Structures are given as C-alpha cells and as structure tokens.
C-alpha cells in the first residue's frame, strides 16, 4: 500500500500541545485526486489539513491546497497556510542560505518566498533568529492576507448577545476601558481578508468573553441573520495593560462547521486589525503601520499567540495590507496510507 509523509504542527505557539494543530501532507512525490485529499483530511479530523506540491504558476515556490474535514476546500491564509511555511523552513526544505535582509539589532535573517494558493501567487516572509535556540521562536512566518473587506453589521446585537448567553450590555467596549471612548461605534460586523467571512463581536470584558456559551443551532441562526456567507463568530475583548507595545485582545472563535471551539483563527485575526483601524482603535505609526496581538484558545488549553500587522499603502488611496505573524512547533510525523480513489467521500 502506497504511503506518503505527513507532519502535525501546532501553529501560533512555540510550545508543543499549545498551538492550533495542523496536518501537513507532503505530496511532492504523489499525484492525489481531490477525493483522496478529502479522505485524508477527514481521517486526520483536525480543523484543517494542508497539502503542498511543486508549483504550477511561474514565480511560486510551492502550491498549497487546504481542506476542512467536511470536504470543503478553503483559500484563507490562516494557521492552515502559516503552519506549512513554518514546517518548510524548520525542516530545511526551503533554501535559507542567502537572506535578502539581516537585522543587526535582532540578528534576524529575512527570506522571501512565494506561494500558489487558489490560483494566486503571493509573498511569504520567513525570519530566522540566530540568537535563539532551535524550537523556541527560531523561525517566524509573516504572511500576506487578501485585501480586507467590511460587510454587513448585525441587525440585532441584543438578540445576538442573548443567543450566546450574554446581555446587550456585554456587546462593545465599556466606557471605563482603555478603548471605551469608541464603544458606541463598535458593533458586531462581518469582515473578511479572504473568501471566508467572519462575524466579529466586540465584548466588554474578558469575563464576558469567557462566559459566552455558543450553541451550534443558535450560532447558525445569528450568522444567517447577518450574512449567509459568514463562516463563524469571532468574539474578542481588550486585554488591559498588556505591556507588549501592541493593542492586545483575547478572542474565541466558533463555527457551525466545527465540532468545538477553534484554538486560533488567523483569517479572523487579520480581519480584526482592519475592523479596529476603521473604527479608530488601531493607530498607525510614522510608517503607516500598526500591530495588534491576539491571544486565542485559552479556554481549550491551547494559548495561541497571533500578531497582525496592518499597513496603509498608496498615495492616500487607503489600500490596506494585512500580514499575520506567528511560529509553530512540530509534534509528530509519519507516513499515511493513500486512500483508494474509488472510495466514496
């Protein structure tokens, strides 16, 4: 029976069993059909499984395809893509012999590669820190997401709050918080930095965030009420006095397509940066850039750390570029049987 290599990476953490698990399948020497990839994804039964291949498009280093356990192919650039690039660098599959930039202050070496995903070729930045030991933030990946888009505002925030076990007063930041002056303008809204849309729900406190009780059928009703293309609900609250120089938030993500809470959702964190900028919460520096830090997965014991950088480009035309930044750690590897293509998915 033909077997191919796989790896499981915990993404957005340098500590094993604390990141968001991703199955990565090396298909450089295999010709898999869509059915075979879907069967393998269902077998791993993680939130996503990503396959990497030789590129088909000019200028790309690798082609990537990513699937959910239900067979749906996804094109968002979140943990499913960042984790693959972390592994490619960590396993020395990438050529890291000639950095295009060296930061003398941090001793970080920067490399740029290009991925083919959904028919588009986009850049990925790899940073390798020489001064830090292997396995502890030695490799960081910075990945460009699609241009952010704002969609519908939820028509009934009070009903939304009740559906997740909270009150209307829990929606938005409180006047007493550091960001409370903007509370009135922060409403639940659908945002996207990919083909996947998420309903972003600002909450008043970490306590409210932890009390949220999201039920699948009620969540589906609320998503349909605002946008029938919305994939999930991303609730977040400000972390007071985080001390890392970035605006810092704690978040939770739920989707009707997932059996449990998602430990880290890069596509939603990227959307959050654009949402906060549009509402005046995220301020830009002299380089027209601003960063946020998102802690996610704490309620499920995962403790993921996602950094998002938003940059305003162009000559005042307001073009936003969103990059998510994170690391990973390998927890296992092996070989898996290639399923029979005639098997019904």
UniProtKB/TrEMBL annotation:
<dbReference type="Pfam" id="PF02567">
    <property type="entry name" value="PhzC-PhzF"/>
</dbReference>
<dbReference type="GO" id="GO:0005737">
    <property type="term" value="C:cytoplasm"/>
</dbReference>
<dbReference type="InterPro" id="IPR003719">
    <property type="entry name" value="Phenazine_PhzF-like"/>
</dbReference>
<dbReference type="GO" id="GO:0016853">
    <property type="term" value="F:isomerase activity"/>
</dbReference>
<protein>
    <submittedName>
        <fullName>Phenazine biosynthesis protein</fullName>
    </submittedName>
</protein>
<feature type="active site">
    <location>
        <position position="48"/>
    </location>
</feature>
